[in-house]
Design a protein that fits this description.
- By secondary structure, the chain is an alpha+beta fold.
- Among the domains are: 100 residues, Rossmann fold (3-Layer(aba) Sandwich); 70 residues, ATP-grasp fold, A domain (Dna Ligase, domain 1, 2-Layer Sandwich); 125 residues, Glycoprotein, Type 4 Pilin; 67 residues, RNA polymerase II/Efflux pump adaptor protein, barrel-sandwich hybrid domain (OB fold (Dihydrolipoamide Acetyltransferase, E2P)), CATH 2.40.50.100.
- The strands form 9 sheets. It has a 9-stranded antiparallel beta sheet with strand order 14-13-10-11-12-15-23-21-20, with helices on both faces. An 8-stranded antiparallel barrel has the order 25-26-27-28-29-30-31-32, surrounded by 4 helices. The chain has a 5-stranded parallel beta sheet with strand order 3-2-1-4-5.
- Strand 31 and strand 32 form a beta hairpin.
- The longest helix has 23 residues.
- It starts with a strand and ends with a strand.
Length: 667
């Protein structure tokens, strides 16, 4: 077994590998850039080596710097995590030459499967079903348009060396094919140092289902079931689960056997994933093979009971697999939600800054038998950088069945506190509550179909609104009781607290009659219904457990001015609890209108303004590209909403902009 492992990565996956190495009694080495000097993976490792400036192209993906760190620390093995150098055959070969074990597949397999064009050819020859497409490289945008037209729209434009949704675009017409080719090429160059592009047919109404494979260096290969990864945004997975609610046993077996056949064809060992597109008739087509550990591997671990990182380490050390295909059993259901530093209310644009509060739910087995797991690489007070992937954590839940796992996820999301940056917690909660998701009717277009106008928050139905009103009424009475108390000799002289209140939020207004015995508050509504409320809430609490009408829920709470902010199941609202007369007068007050920004182009996220395509005095048309902002390795094209004339340009290409900073103004 190895003495010391260097993790050539950062963030949550580096922390994940360190945990398993520690369990096995293996020392660990972290590497870090300028931006990661105080990162969690650096604090967790036994040793840490600085490898350069913040941009990954100058640190994490510079092979010589990683090799120097290996030699400096005397590590005898390297785990690459995912991303960065994890699928770089030259890196694996360089380690092999230096006599350092690469905890991953052989270089020849990485090279064959890491190139999507080559991998499709190998898959076809191995008898694996493949998607129709152009297998050659695309030289320029004109050729991309010709090929896309010949295949037939829609098409998927992909970086040959891509992964993680980087360098991928769907084109539905010639203009999108031309623009998508250039954007994909730029992203591929920035993320992988390889700008080769290819095109394939985009299968409509598809599911993204992948098979986890594991092999040793003695020719033993097994598949560990599948993961459903259809909930995606911009080709980036958001929610995954294992197993898939769509597959039957026959399809699972067929996909697994094809995945093993492909792995065997390239002499594969270690953990790897074969990704498929599956249509509504359960026809499946090879998409790509990821020759590394996947981001979503925890759901497979939860349903199989295996530690995939441990298995990778054992395989790299030359050990045989300790089980056969017949030993692999899927137990229960697991769901993973990716918590991203992005603002769902602003079209999921990246968010950076300091985590002023970071309190994940307690991990482990709960009283109801469900399991909560949270893989993360951040901590309260830490910084979310613009230089790397925006993922903060991977929250996972396990239960005996799918609906129980989803309900456990909803509760865990309610308990997850994140402040200081924009994040997608409310969006994840919203998806968990959707009937379509709970029924398992998924496609890769799920988010676009369910949120065609973007995410604007969850508007509570009447039943949930009453729960919110009851919680607000409870908090109000606790505050009223606290404010009414007089200390010392006058302790018995307290102002009376009224029982009639009006709880107002969003478009709801609930007249209530509240009776409080000190432990339980009975909230009666004017329609005759009532809810009893108890809670551990105290003034200053940011999260509390409530029992409302016999239902136990977690609500994030905060006080501001005269309002009570309540967040639960994707609902984010400010409730005002007022005496009836005050509520009546407030209804007569005019509403303050937001400022008019229709003539301004504001930067929607913190990032670098890479290009400006118009100048002062230009007339622009609706949909025309105006500027491009790059943040967290993603290009975001800003377009004109309507025909207008550019009055002035306030920013220059190359400038680093803050959110809502002015770029240009229109006449």
């Amino acid at each position: 077994m190895f003495r010391k492992i260097l993790i050539a990565n950062r963030g949550e996956i580096a922390c994940r590998v360190i945990k398993t190495a520690r369990k096995l009694g293996i020392a660990t080495v972290a590497v870090y850039s300028d931006a990661d000097r105080e990162a969690l993976h650096v604090k967790m490792a036994d040793e840490a080596v600085h490898i350069g400036p913040a941009p990954s192209a100058q640190s994490y993906i510079v092979i010589d710097k990683i090799l120097d760190a290996v030699k400096q620390t005397g590590a005898d093995a390297v785990h690459p995590g995912y991303g960065f150098l994890s699928e770089n055959a030259n890196f694996a070969e360089a380690l092999k030459v230096d006599g350092i074990a690469f905890i991953g597949p052989p270089p020849v397999a990485i090279e064959a499967m890491g190139d999507k064009i080559t991998s499709k050819r190998i898959a076809a020859s191995a008898g694996v079903s493949t998607v129709p497409g152009h297998m050659g490289l695309i030289e320029d945008a004109d050729e991309a348009v010709r090929i896309a037209s010949s295949i037939g729209y829609p098409v998927m434009i992909k970086a040959s060396a891509g992964g993680g949704g980087k360098g991928m675009r769907i084109a539905w017409n010639e203009q999108e094919a031309r623009e998508g080719f250039q954007s994909s090429r730029n992203e591929a160059k920035a993320s992988f140092g390889d700008d080769r592009i290819f095109i394939e047919k985009f299968v409509t109404e598809p599911r993204h289902i992948e098979i986890q494979v594991l092999g040793d260096q003695h020719g033993n290969i097994v598949y560990l079931g599948e993961r459903e990864c259809s909930i995606q945004r911009r080709n980036q997975k958001v929610i995954e689960e294992a197993p898939s609610p769509f597959l039957d046993e026959a399809t699972r077996k067929a996909m697994g056997e094809q995945a093993v056949a492909l792995a065997r064809a390239v002499g594969y060992f270690s953990a790897g994933t074969v990704e498929f597109i599956v249509d509504g008739e359960r026809n499946f087509y090879f998409l790509e093979m990821n020759t590394r550990l996947q981001v979503e591997h925890p759901v497979t671990e939860l349903v199989t009971g295996l530690d995939l990182v441990e298995e990778m380490i054992r395989v790299a050390a030359g050990e045989r697999l300790r089980f056969t295909q017949n030993d692999v059993k899927l137990d229960g259901w697991a769901v993973e939600s990716r918590l991203y530093a992005e603002d769902p209310y602003r079209n999921f644009l990246p968010s950076i800054g300091r985590l002023t509060r970071y309190r994940p739910p307690v991990e482990g087995r709960r009283d109801d038998g469900t399991i909560v797991r949270n893989d993360t690489g951040v901590f309260e007070g830490g910084e979310i950088s613009m230089y790397y992937d925006p993922m903060i954590a991977k929250l996972c839940t396990w239960a005996p069945d799918r609906l129980a796992a989803i309900e456990a996820m909803s509760a865990a999301l309610d308990d997850f506190e994140v402040e200081g940056i924009g994040h997608n917690l409310p969006f994840l909660s919203a998806v968990m509550e959707q009937q379509r998701f709970r029924e398992g009717r998924l496609t890769t277009a799920y988010i676009a179909e369910e949120f065609p106008d973007g995410f604007t928050g969850v508007v509570p139905g009447l039943a949930d609104a009453k729960m919110i009103a009851a919680a607000a009424a409870f908090i109000n009475l606790r505050l009223q009781r606290r404010n009414a108390q007089i200390s010392g000799a006058l302790a018995n002289h307290r102002r009376p607290i009224g029982q009639d209140w009006v709880a107002t939020f969003d478009d709801y207004s609930f007249p209530t009659h509240c009776r409080d015995d000190g432990d339980v508050t009975l909230v009666e509504f004017d329609d005759g219904s009532a809810l009893d409320v108890s809670s551990d809430w105290q003034p200053g609490a940011t999260h509390a457990s409530f029992d409302i009408g016999g239902k136990r829920i977690g609500i994030k709470t905060s006080l501001g001015g005269s309002g009570i902010r309540l967040r639960w199941r994707g609902i984010d609202t400010i409730a005002f609890v007022r005496p009836p007369r005050v509520a009546e007068l407030v209804r007569l007050m005019p509403r303050k209108l937001p400022p008019d920004t229709s003539k301004l182009l504001l930067c929607p996220m913190p990032g670098v303004l890479t290009t400006i395509t118009v100048a002062e005095g230009d007339t622009v048309e609706a949909g025309q590209a105006l500027a491009t902002v790059e943040a967290m390795k993603m290009e975001n094209v800003l377009r004109a909403e309507r025909r207008a004339t550019v009055k002035s340009v306030a920013a220059k290409a190359g400038a680093s902009l803050a959110v809502d900073e002015l770029i240009m103004e229109f006449a």
